[in-house]
Amino acid sequence: MSYDADALTDRRRLKRRLFFWRFGAIAAGAAALIALFGGTGILPHRAQIARVEINGIITDDRDLQKLMGTLADDRAVKAVILSIDSPGGTTTGAEALYESVRRLAAKKPVVATLGTVAASGGYIAALSADHIVARGNTLTGSIGVLFEWAQFSSLLDKIGVEMREVKSAPLKAEPNPFHKPSPEALAVTQGLISSSYDWFLGLVAERRKLDAATARKLGDGRVFTGWQAVENRLVDEIGGEEQALKWLASARNVPAGLPIEDWAPERPGEGLTPLGARAVGQALAAGVEALAGKTLQTKRLTLDGLTSVWHPEPR
Q1: Judgement on whether residues 202 and 290 belong to the same structural domain of the protein
Q2: What is the pTM of this model?
Q3: Domain that holds residue 77
Q4: pLDDT band for position 307 (cuts 50, 70, 90)
Q5: Cα distance between residue 315 and residue 313, in whole Å
Q6: Residues taking part in catalysis
Q7: Could you give the CA distance from residue 110 to residue 101 in angstroms, rounded to a whole number?
């Protein structure tokens, strides 16, 4: 009997140990999953307002567009704040971003808060929101499209270099930096700009409830302060995130007091800790940029195609 009692006691102890080990393993696994997927919408999480930052040069960013779809489908996300601080970028990139945000806005309210600059493509991003809030000293607007190229023909003449080419038709690869453009080449290029510009003006007129004449008057390429933008109905109100939250509560019945969670696109190669890897990647990118001496001007030289971007001209 004593042997049976001791064996039973040992078995109970073993069961308790196994239970604690299993519970610990499950808890650790759950913690790892929350850390890995908690901000991606894969696991259920608390009701919230999502904040998405749109900073720097805008390009055709598929990861960012995918994020808008994720936010649209996430039931815990009750509204989205677009925090925009961008001088613009490629017109196609701004167009793709605009369309992805409008699909999101069909399912839940979106409000834009404008930082230091939200011009050209940055303003296109703002137009995708249901409501726009800007600081008084925000620079916004710069409604227009740009196509630039360097002209080296005079320099080549001075150093005695002649460029030769064989092409299928006169307008192939025009305008060309190695010779002055023909009137026909300039006319075709102007047609590209006009087509894209008309699309941009159409967005402004539609989203800001302006007639075509007013949209074209405001769309002469100038930038506006936030105060001027409100006066001209390009922006809804002056303020920051606090005003954005008040609008969500009053106009869209989003519950007040919901936590605001930062969301960012998932980038390939970020590893098992997205937030940490993202921070490391940003730090490395900043270091490389500092060493290379990059500026907004040099970044603009890498933008292909039509651009909707604003920057102060160097003196």
Answers
A1: no
A2: 0.75
A3: 41-142+222-315
A4: confident
A5: 6
A6: 120, 172
A7: 8
